[in-house]
UniProtKB/TrEMBL annotation:
It comes from Flectobacillus rivi. Keywords: Hydrolase, Signal. NCBIfam families: amidohydrolases. InterPro entries: Amidohydrolase, Aminobenzoyl-glu_utiliz_pB, Bact_exopeptidase_dim_dom, Peptidase_M20, Peptidase_M20/M20A_hydrolases, Peptidase_M20_dimer. It holds the Pfam family M20_dimer. This is Amidohydrolase. Residues 206-298 form the Peptidase M20 dimerisation domain.
């Protein structure tokens, strides 16, 4: 009773309460074996986007047992869910990703050994992401209940982050985040870092061309090649690269080029991905891409159509929230290795194709806080960051130098190095959430920063994927 009164007194007068923080970290450390086992189950299942049924159910069961109210199938997505504890404001959201990547099945060993041929694997560590976020939410909830804290903690289970899934974009469009005051998230990585990052806005689309089939030798004049149109488009886009900003990214792959070389192809399709630091810049590149497709169709006398598969906003950094996350991460610290883990790390680093690698000991340290960092990839967290203040971190769940989306990452995510990084993330998020509940003024400052970066207080969200519905079968 005296301990509880002391905790409440500390909160009431605004004095940093080391005792309450210590209780959160101790609870998570005591449950580390339990959470590691859960993450290993999900690592074994390795379910693809929008098909994470067992994963979602396992996370929901953990949250229900801890006293959260569950809402399943949100946003018309079977595996998306919301777990809520508490009432009123502030509402602190925590993101939990779940999906695996195709073709990266791997044993938890420091050499290439597939568990199953061409099967899915957790090469981005979402088995750790989901569980670590759930652990943070439960620890925060337990502290709130014990200290009688007003407010709401909300864990949002977000499926299908990878590829053209864009799960969070559809949840944002459905208004899932409209009453959330701040969002916290994390991601597996090869270092410990809470600096605010931006990312690239992103759009994926298929361009289809329809022509006329004919015998390629006996009557080629009667044919109109859809493949010629694809090649003409690709050629023009490659010429365009000289006249775009250096940070713009354009990638393509021909997904259908015809059936056989002695028939003029009457159908061909190419998939394009474009990226730019801003949504406005992305739209400008998109309009130029459309012109190349239209020109290719005109020049080859074919017909063109396109389908937008996915679209993501760039991340809006939030310095106010990020600084709080950095403080919490520095309290938690990095990931220390045992002699066995050092041996694992040394072996797996020999398989990484890199000129220079950060020392293994860098996993034990926290990177200094830095602003204006650019993450030259894309994430559907970007859409969330445009509607509510958002901050995230990475922890060293992978051996330093191991890249994302690799078999080496899968191996690390299924063993103790990954488990340790996951629990460091859970502690960091829980401590950050605690600080936000204790200091509502930080949330107001974070909102003001959001309005400033966004350029407006009132913002009407429009998905960069257009009116497209969740592609629930994109991994089938």
């Amino acid at each position: 009773m005296k301990k509880l009164l002391y905790v409440c007194l500390c909160l009431w007068v605004g004095i940093p309460c080391a005792l309450a923080q210590q209780e959160i970290t101790q609870e998570l450390q005591q449950k580390s074996i339990q959470y590691a086992a859960l993450s290993d189950k999900i690592w074994q299942w390795a379910e693809p986007g929008y098909l994470e049924d067992k994963t979602a159910n396992a996370l929901i069961e953990e949250l229900q047992a801890a006293g959260f109210q569950i809402q399943k199938g949100v946003g018309a997505i079977q595996t998306a869910f919301i777990a809520t504890y508490g009432t009123g404001s502030p509402v602190i959201g925590i993101l939990a990703e779940m999906d695996a990547l195709p073709g990266l099945s791997q044993e938890a060993v420091p050499f290439r050994k597939a568990k199953f041929v061409n099967a899915y694997g957790h090469a981005c560590g979402h088995n750790l992401f989901g569980v670590g976020s759930v652990a943070a939410a439960i620890a925060t909830k337990n502290w709130m209940a014990k200290a009688h804290i007003k407010g709401t903690i909300r864990l949002i289970g977000t499926p299908a982050e990878e590829g053209a899934g864009g799960g969070k974009t559809y949840l944002v469009k459905e208004g899932i985040f409209k009453d959330v005051d701040a969002v916290l998230h994390w991601h597996p990585g090869d270092n410990n870092n809470a600096s605010p990052n931006s990312s690239l806005a992103y759009r994926v689309a298929n361009f289809s061309f329809t022509g006329l089939a004919a015998h390629a030798s006996a009557s080629p004049e009667k044919g109109r090649s859809a493949l010629d149109a694809v090649e003409a488009m690709n050629y023009m886009v490659n010429l365009m690269r000289e006249h775009i900003s250096p940070e713009t990214r354009i990638h393509y792959v021909i997904k259908n080029g015809g059936l056989t070389s002695n028939i003029v192809p009457d159908y061909a399709m190419v998939e394009y991905t474009i990226r730019n630091p801003t949504a406005q810049g992305l739209e400008e590149i998109w309009q130029r891409l459309l012109k190349t497709a239209e020109a290719a169709a005109h020049g080859t006398e074919t017909k063109m159509s396109y389908e937008i598969l996915a679209g993501l906003y760039n991340l809006l950094p939030n310095d106010i929230l990020a600084k709080e996350m950095q403080k919490s991460l520095e309290k938690v610290g990095g990931v220390p290795y045992t002699p066995e883990e050092i041996a694992f790390a040394e072996k797996i680093r020999q398989t990484v194709n890199a000129q220079t690698l950060a020392p293994i000991t860098s996993a034990q340290t926290v990177r200094p806080y830095t602003t204006d960092l650019a993450f030259l990839a894309s994430t559907d967290v970007g859409d969330v960051s445009w509607v509510t203040p958002t901050a995230g971190l990475s922890t060293a769940t992978w051996v330093p130098g191991v890249p994302a989306h690799s078999w080496q990452a899968v191996a690390c995510n299924g063993m103790s190095i990954g488990h340790k990084g996951m629990m460091n993330a859970a502690q960091t998020i829980a401590l950050t959430a605690q600080n936000l509940f204790k200091s509502p003024n930080l949330i107001e400052q974070a909102k003001e920063e959001l309005y400033q970066r966004r350029g407006t207080k009132i913002f009407e969200y429009k998905s960069l994927a257009g009116d497209r519905k969740p592609p629930l079968d994109y991994r089938k």
